Task: inverse folding
């Protein structure tokens, strides 16, 4: 099975702040602040090089930017760890008769790598289909361990509602979409609606961080599960151990708490699962779906058995991933 993050014993590279064409580009550090240590092992291009060995016909998904959308990038949404956290907004140009549903997209990278711009293409295409799509950064494990990433994403959701008017956003129709570690985070953020453990700071606290739909793209639902491959620290600290701040054996309660499976209940929103053929990347999914069915909550599952883990970044899987996402959100929200 393929992992796309560095072992802990490798040195982290200096902070990088932009990703273009699948390559991370170095940016100058902020004045009077040291560069943040950051693992840059997971980029679109590095994942492509690895996946192409088994799938020589794939290509990086770079659809043309639709002429029908607008964008605002590098927008600060809060301050954390003495620095701004940024997001990018893509939204329809045309004025609409009613506000548009919103989607917050969360990147993957083992909770310690990756960049929000890896999902710009998906966000742009969603905007062309009538959604307000936002890609947000969050603090990675070299900077801040769990639950900081979840708290950051909850703050980004509150920012969305606080800025609904400029983007024509419907605050009653908000979804969260995530890939890999981002899928795990999306599922956890979405299943912990109104949980005070994941609300922090004073930024837009009068606004809600609740979501009304979850799209989990190859993100695990349970860390301590027979299907999970997380927590193997025999050759160095695993990505999950680094993020959670302790091993599975030493902190079992924390590992359970960070699992979306532990939070399924009557208030859980509808969920869509889009998966690769890498079985461990959907650990706990079937248990979650059984619980949702018992609660009368809608869920959907689509699997590409032949696909590698980073499939939503590549053709031929990008387009069907987009279609499954749009169809699910239209079912839950109605047409934008």
Result:
């Amino acid at each position: 099975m393929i992992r796309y993050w560095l072992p802990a014993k490798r040195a982290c590279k200096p902070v990088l702040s932009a990703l273009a064409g699948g390559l991370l580009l170095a940016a100058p550090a902020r004045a009077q602040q040291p560069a943040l240590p950051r693992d840059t092992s997971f980029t679109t291009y590095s994942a492509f090089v690895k996946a192409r060995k088994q799938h020589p016909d794939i290509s990086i998904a770079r659809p043309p930017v639709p002429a029908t959308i607008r964008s605002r990038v590098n927008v600060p949404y809060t301050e954390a760890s003495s620095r701004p956290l940024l997001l990018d907004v893509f939204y329809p140009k045309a004025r609409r008769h009613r506000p548009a549903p919103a989607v917050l997209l969360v990147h993957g990278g083992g909770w310690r790598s990756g960049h929000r711009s890896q999902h710009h293409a998906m966000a742009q295409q969603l905007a062309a289909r009538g959604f307000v799509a936002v890609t947000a950064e969050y603090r990675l494990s070299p900077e801040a361990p769990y639950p900081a990433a979840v708290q950051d994403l909850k703050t980004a959701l509150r920012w969305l509602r606080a800025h609904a008017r400029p983007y024509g956003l419907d605050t009653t129709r908000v979804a969260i979409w995530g890939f890999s570690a981002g899928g795990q985070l999306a599922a956890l953020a979405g299943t912990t609606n109104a949980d005070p453990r994941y609300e922090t700071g004073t930024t837009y606290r009068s606004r809600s961080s609740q979501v009304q739909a979850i799209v989990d793209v190859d993100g695990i639902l349970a860390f301590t599960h027979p299907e999970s491959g997380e927590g193997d620290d025999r050759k160095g600290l695993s990505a999950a151990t680094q993020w959670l701040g302790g091993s599975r054996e030493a902190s079992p309660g924390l590992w359970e708490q960070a699992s979306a499976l532990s939070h399924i209940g009557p208030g859980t929103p509808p969920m869509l699962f889009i998966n690769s053929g890498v079985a461990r990347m959907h650990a706990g999914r079937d248990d979650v779906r059984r619980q949702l069915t018992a609660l009368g909550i809608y869920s959907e599952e689509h699997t590409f058995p032949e696909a590698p883990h980073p499939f939503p970044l590549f053709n031929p899987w990008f387009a069907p991933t987009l279609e499954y996402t749009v169809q699910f959100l239209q079912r839950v929200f109605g047409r934008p």
